[in-house]
Specification:
Layout lengths: L5 H24 L10 H15 L14 H39 L5 E4 L4 E4 H16 L2 H15 L12 H8 L1 H30 L5 H20 L4 H16 L13
Antiparallel strand pairs: 1-2
Helix pairs in contact: 1-2, 1-3, 1-5, 3-4, 3-7, 3-9, 5-9, 7-8
């Protein structure tokens, strides 16, 4: 007769719940996985499937009661680690979102906005075009599989423990967040440069021929030039997107590095 004690049952449950919390934290925030068009049941089922697949290779779990203060602290710790991994990749897509916003505002399509269920806010049509392109490129380079592998390897570099620290280098995440503006500007630079030249030409034209209605011809010209430059830049946009996504994965791998010491006040 097989007898199952309470301690064994609790060890099995904690061995599933703690890794599942980290995986679900990544799924809730990471791009593609955390999209609001995906049902919540699918996300939970995916998290359970990933957890069951990686459970045999996980390090030993700490001997702590899951319903104690230590157990709740471990649960919060795993949630923070998963959210940090997913948020690091989300920053790359925020840069793409900003690039689309820059292009839309420069083209005069800033008024063409609609509700985005992913960000729960207003977004432009050009921004959605850039984001969809980035998502397709992310899937084409198996970014979703690499992200699952990253959260799996995080259990080796940041094992589940009773320590109060999460093991995540949050300073590294803040430093990586600075690249949103530079990467977004680099992606939108061809459109911004072309529209700057067009606006300079329109400004000179308005001084030489004041009788022309620039409000009538200015918007069609800027929109047309912007769409043409975007169409020409799309085939060459794979290189900066690949570099941006690769840098995101490198940042995820560096999250376990110790934080640099803070400078002492003089």
């Amino acid at each position: 007769m097989i007898s199952i004690s309470t301690d064994m049952l609790q060890a099995w449950i904690s061995g599933l719940v703690w890794p599942l919390t980290r995986v679900l934290g990544m799924i809730a925030v990471a791009p593609i996985f955390g999209h609001r068009s995906l049902p919540a049941r699918f996300k939970v089922a995916l998290g359970v499937f990933i957890t069951l697949a990686i459970m045999p290779g996980l390090p030993p779990m700490p001997a702590a009661d899951m319903f104690s203060i230590q157990g709740v602290a471990i649960l919060i710790q795993q949630l923070l680690i998963g959210v940090a991994i997913g948020f690091t990749m989300r920053i790359a897509f925020a840069a793409v979102d900003m690039a689309g916003h820059f292009c839309a505002m420069s083209m005069g399509l800033g008024f063409a906005t609609f509700f985005d269920p992913q960000s729960s806010g207003q977004t432009t049509a050009v921004t959605q075009l850039f984001v969809v392109l980035a998502m397709l490129f992310f899937l084409s380079m198996n970014g979703h599989l690499i992200l699952i592998m990253a959260v799996t390897e995080s259990f080796m570099t940041i094992p589940i423990s009773l320590g109060p620290e999460t093991g995540i280098n949050f300073v590294r995440i803040v430093t990586w967040g600075e690249h949103i503006f530079s990467a977004g500007l680099q992606l939108a630079l061809p459109v911004i440069a072309a529209l700057l030249i067009a606006n300079l030409a329109l400004g000179i034209l308005s001084r030489t021929a004041p009788q022309l209605n620039l409000f009538g011809i200015g918007f069609p010209i800027t929109i047309s030039i912007g769409l043409i430059v975007i169409a020409l830049a799309f085939p060459r946009m794979s290189v900066p997107l690949e570099r941006l996504i690769s840098d995101s994965f490198n940042t995820i791998n560096q999250l376990t590095m110790p934080s640099p010491p803070l400078p002492l006040p003089q």
